[in-house]
């Protein structure tokens, strides 16, 4: 979200500065001008940075414009891991668990269903 806000602020400032100098906006709205400006910007970044920095820039852009890693399932998994239970009636094994604790949990769950 902040990436989009930042892009809007940059474009807004460029347009405002251009209009303050009594520029004609139709001059800026030409595909050839956009290609020249974007090509110069991208070329400058490519020339000025080594490969390991460029890969970090790429992963940063992907992270900025990609989806959030925090979703409902991750939140629930973290809550279960932290508190150990999903609700009052359900019992969840604490991670990490061993084979013995898993077997014991299964036995208890089976015993509880047989009693009902």
Description:
It is a single chain. This protein has two domains: 64 residues, no CATH class; 44 residues, no CATH class. Helix content is 73%, strand content 0%. The protein contains six helices and no strands. The protein starts with a helix and ends with a helix.
Number of domains: 2
Helix percent band: over 70%
Given as residue ranges, the uncertain stretches (5+ residues, pLDDT < 50) are: none
N-to-C series of helices and strands: HHHHHH
What's the overall average pLDDT, rounded? 81
Distance between the termini: 51 Å
Query: Strand percentage, roughly?
Result: under 5%
Radius of gyration: 28 Å
Number of strands: 0
Number of helices: 6
Category from helices, strands and their pairing: mainly alpha
Describe the sheet with the most strands.
Answer: none
Using the alpha-carbon principal axes, give the shape.
Answer: elongated
What is the compact description of this entry?
This protein has 116 residues and is mainly alpha-helical.
Name the descriptors.
116 residues, elongated, mainly alpha, 2 domains
Topology:
Elements: H1 2-20, H2 25-28, H3 31-48, H4 51-65, H5 72-83, H6 99-115
């Amino acid at each position: 979200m902040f990436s989009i806000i930042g892009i809007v602020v940059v474009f807004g400032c460029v347009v405002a500065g251009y209009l303050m100098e009594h520029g004609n906006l139709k001059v800026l709205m030409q595909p050839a001008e956009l290609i020249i400006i974007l090509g110069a910007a991208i070329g400058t970044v490519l020339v000025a940075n080594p490969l390991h920095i460029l890969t970090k820039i790429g992963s940063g852009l992907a992270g900025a414009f990609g989806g959030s890693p925090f979703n409902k399932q991750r939140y629930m998994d973290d809550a279960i891991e932290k508190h150990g239970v999903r609700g009052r009636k359900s019992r969840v094994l604490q991670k990490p668990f061993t084979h013995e604790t898993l077997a014991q949990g299964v036995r208890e769950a089976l015993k509880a269903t047989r009693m009902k």
